[in-house]
Design a protein that fits this description.
Length: about 270
């Protein structure tokens, strides 16, 4: 476990308490968080992460410290990795919360070392076993103030989540893509959180390769009709779904191809220092 995190440009030991009992973020949930990934002291999608941070600050009507910029954001992560002696693959969490005086908000960043520098494709595949009895609340589709890292982190992994009408939204720990006859289908309703950064990136790779993308409502009974299914998340990249229950098995040609293309793109970004 990393020994330090960074709060408003100050290094703090993880054993120290930093939030007062009167803090608005603590008392009223007046905060938001998102996951970051990277390697070699650089974040993947760093501009997208910072743009998302600025957008959520505006949605929450927060005010950042006047000095805070993309350069500061990237520098804080780089310095935090250095002080924690993390030199290869890492994941982290960025949290922004409103202080008790309500004048400025604080930015807290933490990082942890992980085994893989880039996203590791799962050759064995994962199995989607069932649909959750808990549906995605309608409020989550409408609110701009989406504070959660993962609203459904109390559910088991790879559980299919639907809206109140039974339309598939995602799995409990990732967004989901479907493939039929070389056409890519994505759920029409998606939660507007930071995970859309990697979803949009994967869609751009698919379009570059000439695939059509169709956004539509997909039901549980439609799962039998697809040739391939894969899930995507900032934390894990692309993962192949090998099957649904015992009734359907899927191929993994496209997911392996796109996962390889994504890693090649990210390696060029990291190596070029951009």
């Amino acid at each position: 476990m990393a020994r330090h995190f960074i709060l408003n440009r100050n290094f703090i030991l993880t054993s120290q308490t930093t939030i007062k009992p009167t803090n608005n973020g603590l008392l009223f949930g007046d905060c938001f968080s998102f996951v970051i990934r990277g390697c070699s002291s650089k974040m993947f999608f760093s501009k997208d992460f910072f743009d998302y941070l600025l957008k959520k600050v505006a949605d929450f009507k927060m005010v950042l410290p006047i000095y805070y910029s993309q350069t500061v954001f990237e520098g804080d992560i780089k310095n935090l990795l250095y002080v924690n002696r993390i030199y290869q693959g890492f994941e982290g969490i960025v949290s922004v919360y409103r202080n008790e005086n309500e004048k400025e908000s604080s930015v807290l960043c933490s990082v942890e070392a992980i085994e893989n520098q880039y996203y590791k494709y799962n050759k064995s595949g994962i199995l989607l076993n069932s649909v959750s009895k808990e549906t995605v609340p309608e409020l989550l589709f409408k609110t701009k103030k989406y504070p959660f890292l993962n609203y459904f982190n109390n559910l088991e992994n790879n559980l299919i989540l639907t809206d109140e009408l039974g339309n598939i939204v995602q799995v409990s720990n990732a967004n989901i893509f479907f493939v039929r006859n070389n056409v890519i289908f994505v759920p029409k309703r998606q939660l507007k959180n930071a995970e859309l950064i990697i979803v949009k990136f994967v869609i751009s790779l698919l379009k570059e390769k000439g695939y059509s993308i169709v956004s539509q409502n997909i039901k549980e009974e439609d799962l039998k009709s697809f040739d391939e299914v894969f899930v995507v998340s900032l934390r894990d990249g692309i993962k192949w779904v090998m099957g649904y229950k015992s009734v359907k098995r899927y191929y993994h040609n496209l997911s392996a191809e796109i996962s390889s293309s994504m890693d090649e793109f990210l390696k060029k970004i990291i190596e070029n220092g951009k």
